[in-house]
Amino acid sequence: MSQGNEDRLLFELKSRGPQAAAALAATVAITPMGAHKLLARLAGQGLVEAQDDQRGEAGRPRKLWSLTAAGHGRFPDRHADLTVQLIQQARAVFGEAGLDQLILARERDSELRYRAAIDRCRTTGDRVRELARLRAEEGYMARAERVGKDWLLVEDHCPICAAAQSCQGFCRSELALFERCLGPGLTIERTEHLLAGARRCAYRISAV
Predict the structure, then answer these.
(1) Rg of the Cα trace of the chain?
(2) Which helix (H) or strand (E) holds 190?
(3) Under 8 Å between Cβ of 28 and 8
C-alpha cells in the first residue's frame, strides 16, 4: 500500500501544487504521521522538497511540500530527448520556415480530431469539458473548471514540455488550435504558462 500512497501523494502535488502534509494526508486518507513518513521517504529519493510558508497561523511558518524537478520527471515526457533531437535536426535541415510547417501540420491533424468530438457539443461548458477530456487522454492531466461566468482549462502536466522549450512555436500553435476548436464568440487567454515559470498551463475562456 505504501507504494500506492506514494504515487498518490506525487499525483496530488503534481495536479494541485504545493501542499501541507496534513492536507495531503486528508486527500490520500492516511494519518498525518503516515503522510510525514511517506514525504520523508520521497524527499530521500529527491522527488519532493519542503519550504516554509510564512502565512502559517500566528505568524508561524508551516511546511509546504512540492515536487522537485526529479519528481516532475516521474510523469510521462514522451521521450523528451528524442523529440528535442528531432526538432534540432528538422531546424538544421529545413530551417525555421520548414519547422513551422511541421508544427502547422501537427496542428491541423489535432484540429481534425478535436473538432470531430467538440462540434457535437452544444454549450460552451460542454465544449471546454470535451477539450479537457481530449487533452487528458494525450497526457496533459487536463480538466475544466468554472470560474464565475468564465471557464478555465487547466493542464497540470505537459508531456511535450521538452519540445516546447526547444521550439516555442508549439505553445503558439496550441493557443491558436484551442481558439478555432472552441468556436467563435469566445476569447481565450493563457493565464499561466509552464515555460514562463508557472507550475502548469491554464487558459481562461470568456464570452465576447
Answers:
(1) 20
(2) strand 186-192
(3) yes
For 75-105, letters b (16+ CB in 10 Å) and e give bebeebeebeeebeebeeeeeeeebeebbee
- Out of 22-31, 89-98, 157-166, 189-198, least confident range: 157-166
pLDDT tens digit string along 86-99?
A: 778 878 888 888 88
Which amino acid appears at position 77 of this protein?
A: D
CB 68 within 8 A of CB 46: yes
C-alpha cell belonging to residue 117: 468530438
Q: What is the pLDDT of residues 88-143, one digit of tens each?
A: 887 888 888 888 888 888 889 999 999 999 999 999 999 999 999 999 988 888 99
Which among 88, 114, 93, 86 has a CA at the least distance from the CA of 173? Answer: 114
Provide CB contacts within 8 A for 188, sequence distance 6+. Answer: 175, 178, 179, 182, 203, 204, 205
Grid coordinates given for 197: 515559470
- 53 versus 196: which is more confidently predicted? 196
C-alpha 23/C-alpha 35 separation (Å) is 9
Cα separation, 186 vs 152, in Å, equals 12
Please check whether residue 20 is in contact with residue 57, taking contact to mean a CB–CB distance below 8 angstroms.
Answer: no
CA nearest to 141, candidates 70, 50, 75: 75
Query: In whole angstroms, what is the distance from residue 160 CA to residue 157 CA?
Result: 9
